[in-house]
């Protein structure tokens, strides 16, 4: 297995788009808009690969003031429960720290809240609704 960093212009991006659509969009009846895809242009994309197969991916978006947002975390349903999400999030945390960020945050789906708590993230504030489901703002000091 190998963790790779890539950009929207790289061939790995299409694989991440397919994975994100399958795991995060289809269950909610959502698609990608042009605005959604435009957001990805300046972001850092991180993927966990086994050969040419993408097992998990996430996106890091600089939000200014030495903070970075982790978003669109997706693990292929065939590989969930095997620790791949944890590996990827730890890599993202370490990478952000090395790049000088002091805080990483995310909007965690209710179903992922416990996962992030185990990774050292804290809930800040009350739950809120985003894309029609419950979310929590979570953050971690780096």
Describe this entry's structure for a reader.
With about 140 residues, this protein is of the alpha+beta class. The protein has a single domain (about 1-100), classed as Gcn5-related N-acetyltransferase (GNAT) (Aminopeptidase, 3-Layer(aba) Sandwich). Helix content is about 30%, strand content about 40%. The protein is built from four helices and eight strands; from the N terminus they run βααβββαβαβββ. It has helices at about 10-25, 35-40, 85-100, 115-120, and strands at about 1-5, 45-50, 55-65, 65-75, 105-110, 120-125, 130, 135-140. Strands 1, 2, 3, 4, 5, 6, 7 and 8 form an eight-stranded mixed beta sheet that branches. It starts with a strand and ends with a strand. The mean pLDDT is about 95.
- Segments where pLDDT lies below 50 for 5+ residues? none
CATH first level:
Alpha Beta
Beta-sheet strand percentage? Answer: 35-45%
- Total number of distinct structural domains: 1
**CATH superfamily label:** Gcn5-related N-acetyltransferase (GNAT)
Summarize the structure.
With 142 residues, the protein is an alpha+beta fold.
């Amino acid at each position: 297995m190998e963790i790779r960093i890539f950009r929207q212009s790289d061939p790995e991006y299409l694989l991440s788009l397919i994975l994100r659509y399958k795991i995060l969009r289809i269950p909610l009846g959502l698609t990608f808009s042009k605005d959604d895809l435009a957001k990805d242009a300046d972001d850092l994309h991180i993927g966990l690969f086994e050969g040419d197969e993408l097992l998990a991916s996430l996106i890091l978006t600089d939000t200014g003031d030495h903070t970075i947002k982790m978003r669109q975390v997706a693990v292929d349903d065939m590989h969930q429960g095997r620790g791949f999400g944890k590996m990827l999030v730890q890599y993202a945390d370490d990478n952000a720290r090395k790049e000088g960020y002091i805080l990483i945050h995310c909007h965690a789906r209710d179903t992922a809240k416990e996962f992030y708590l185990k990774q050292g993230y804290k809930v800040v504030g009350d739950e809120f609704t985003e894309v029609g489901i419950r979310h929590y703002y979570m953050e971690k000091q780096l």
